[in-house]
Design goal:
This protein is α/β, with parallel strands linked by helices. It is built from three helices and eight strands, in the order E-H-E-H-E-E-E-H-E-E-E.
Amino acid sequence: MDNVGIVVEDLDAAIAFFAELGMELEGTAEIEGLAADHMVGLDGVRSVIAMMRTPDGHGRLELTVFRTPAAIDGSPLDPPPNTRGLHRVMFAVDDIDDTIARLRLHGAELLGEVARYEDSYRLCNLRGPAGIILALAEQIG
């Protein structure tokens, strides 16, 4: 897998949010033209992307803002965790409580509460930019 794409409304806020998780900004680019139109299946695509890389270099997120055509809201806007389709991205963290506190400063909302899975992990889901659900996992055993 090369990356997971997320369409966002505020690119700077999304970059700051994922940087708080330890991701590094590889770069940004403006995307437009016939190749973009053909790949996406829309006409007149003008977008800006930011590629974020995990600290280990093995995972990337492509954050995208569509200038034209304008992005549209999905339905429902904030889908519950049992909605069909891609619904979350999980990140391994060293300190789940500290990570939640830092992400709350960027607008993250905890869904449910932090749960313990056997003697192995502390886990939680939270809602981040563009309504995406992020899962956090802290290994404890």
